[in-house]
Design a protein that fits this description.
The complex is a heterodimer. Chain A folds into 2 domains: 3-231, Rossmann fold, CATH 3.40.50.300; 235-349, OB fold (Dihydrolipoamide Acetyltransferase, E2P) (Beta Barrel). Helices cover 28% and strands 30% of the residues of chain A. Chain A has 11 helices and 18 strands. The longest helix of chain A is centred in the middle third of the chain and has 18 residues, at 165-182. In chain B, helix 2 (41-83) packs across helix 9. Chain B is globular, with a radius of gyration of 26 Å. Classes of the chains: A alpha+beta, B mainly alpha.
Chain lengths: 351, 571
Amino acid sequence: MGIELREITQKYGELTAVNNVNLFIEDGEMLALLGPSGCGKTTLLKTIAGLLPLYRGKICFNNEDISKWEAQKRNAAMVFQNYALFPHMSVEENIAYGLKIRKNNKSQTMAKVDEILNKVELSGLNHRKISELSGGQQQRVALARALVIEPSILLFDEPLSNLDQRLRIAMRQKIREIQQEYGITSIYVTHDQEEAMSISDRIAVMKDGIIEQIGTADQVYLKPQNRFVAEFMGIANIVKLGENQELDRILESGNPGSSLRSRILDGGWDMLKHRLLVFRPEDVEIGEAGEFEGTVIWQETIGSVKMVTIDYLGNKIIAEIRNYYKSGIKCANGDRIRFNLDLNEIHLIDD
Amino acid sequence: MKFKQSYLLKIFYWLLSLSIIYFIVLPVCSVFIYGIASGSEAEFFKQILPRVWKHMKNSLQVAMAVTFISTSFGLLASITLWRIKFWGRRIMRILVLMPLISPPFVGSVAFIMLFGKRGLITHSFLGLEVSPFGYYGIVTMQSIGLATLAYLLISSAIKKTDVSHEEAARSLGASERDIFLSITLPLMIPEITVAAMLVFLASMSDFGTPIIIGGGFQTLASDLYIQITGLYNMKTASISGIFLFIPCFIAFFIQRYYSGKNMVYSHSISGEFIEYYRVKKAVKLLLILLSCVFVFFVFLQYAFIVIGAFTEHWGYNYSFTLRHLENILSKEAAPFVNSIKLAVPVALVSSILGVLLAYIIKSKSYPLSKQIDFFTTLPASVPGILLGIGYLVTFKYPLLGIGGFVLSELEPVILLGTGVIIYLICIYRYLYVGLKSGYALMEHVNPNLEIAAINLGASERRVFFDIIFPMLTPAFNVAFLKNFSSTMTTLGAIIFLLLPRNKVAVQQIFQVMTSSEIGAAAMMALMLSMLSLVFLGIFQLFINHEDISKYLRGCCQWVSSLGKLPKNTES
């Protein structure tokens, strides 16, 4: 089911939690709402679910205005951060709750419960109490409870944030698998950019109640539209051009004929407006033949990857060395080190 | 863990434990010993048992009806005032709590003014000479008073509601009615049960209401009072006491089992966002209407107290007078002073001891702490009047009680008849309040705090005075305020132990009430309520002086910024 949000505004008293948001989610798509805590992403999600009264704007499901519909009628099942499992009911009763409301007959209900329990790999735990389940199991019961009513829309409110790292990765695969299998239009709220990138078709990055950018994972990662998105989507190196002559020598770097400056101009960038050059750590190449020289101020090794922070004319530039142990590169804090910029695509943002 | 242990704390713990056994367990046991040991079997079955049984039935009838009505209204008001948005709910939240600071017979005074033999409704409007004293009167008055208690307990739970369960049910398609019946209500069963049991207990132990408005209908607790003050029959009183104790103890145990059972509270969501925003107009109006009725009744009591306090002679002469006020200020001021003199030290000592005990029990693994916890909370299950009898039969013997059995020839040190005994009974009776608020605080305290300080090289004693003591102050403050208002309005426990010279205000009101001097009683009740309120206000100021001075500073800045504003515009 396609979802359309038009000029949605939500307020808590004086505080504007969601500010004039427009969004379209295609049928069967999984959209991640990504942003820091307090950015309004959960408020937006609850608004779509009908759990918060709409302050201003319009919500359409399949082109039908449902802004005034009650939550019960929207058939938008939600998976909560704390799971919100009913503590006074067993696993089975929790999952069957939505079906009972829909007046399914008993044998049908039980069959569906068993099927969905199988799907989330919890077969046989029908009569367990909620308090007897582990965090991961509770998470899966919450998912099953939402799935079993065959919702038109699935809404996830940071469903994995109470699990440990390893379980999170396994569960996000599971969620994505099931979502694609059922083809349910879904919205997934998270503050973890890695999770957002791995699970969704598109990402909407939010800040202070405003959607800063919408796009696929590649788009928001490689072509952030502003500093906030650039820095929120992983580590970003941002260098301000046109202010310091020495620093501007970066522009002349690269092969003759395809210097950075000429590539920027060829790309149609307006350098008076877009003055911040954005590149990622993997675009920085450390090596003896590097054109630039800076001082190592910090370095850390995680597995086979080494991240090196270089001070270059007062700018902090972070470089990533893959296969560090095989690379033969040695560096310690305080060392002078040479590096190159190896930019596939140039991306600039305005101040 | 091995570090330097402080003997100070250990000694304190053992001394306090001994005194708890001595001043709580011993008197309660004494009632049993006294009741069972004395008297012949024939007398017991022929005279005592039928009398006790009759009053027991009355007590249970009253208590069950009151429990049902009060808990229902408490629940209803909690939901309406905290989960439904409407104009005026803030003021209603305050009005509902008024009975907490007033002496227990305020309702009864108002009841007599309306429905007594010369009552406004019964006599003046209906022309009746009789009054509907008895069962219905008692149930009505207790219900209004105790609904406040139920409201207090249930609303404090409702404020912590985790709405995500309801939201989950809503997004699964459940109707609001279904959600309430299948999610909200079942999740509140622990709080509702706790509230119901405490209401039951309070109703069982109330003797004032039946005495004043019961007429021929007396309950076990009120009969107990009559046995002692009217018939001087300690034996029957003790047996009644045992029978009174049993249902109370059961209720208390059910309450203890259920309290703290609910683990589904949210820690992040505040009371701001728990309102139902989609309730049917009719349901909303009904809820508000019922709550208004409840609040109206509470309010009505006070309105009549105020009116009665300034009326010449209720039922005969309705002209305005300051006679009662002058009377009290000139002749009867002493009991009010005594009340304050009792309540302040009692609140101070019992709160400090209770909170400290909570700290010791929770954080030190001293032996017998489970038993001490149980003994300390025992008075919560014992009707005050019963504990009073326990003191009466225990401490009339020399050597603080046990002398009667061991050293009969020594110089008698008899506690009964001294002023000290009422301080002791109040302190030990309310020790559990400090204990409980101490526990509640300790749950939110990081257990590593103490270890961190020890790790930094502090001795156990230093840790206690530098870290623990300042940390415990909020629990102490809560307990102090509660104990102060409880002691100001308590009667059951101390009524047999008071002497004419240390008579407290509540007792004075009770005596005046039973001799039907409505105007004087109303004025005294009003004054006592005001007095409690003033003192609570002063203590609040004292406790929150930092917040208040911050607020005042803010105000000053605001005022001075107002002064500056015109100058800026000129320049």
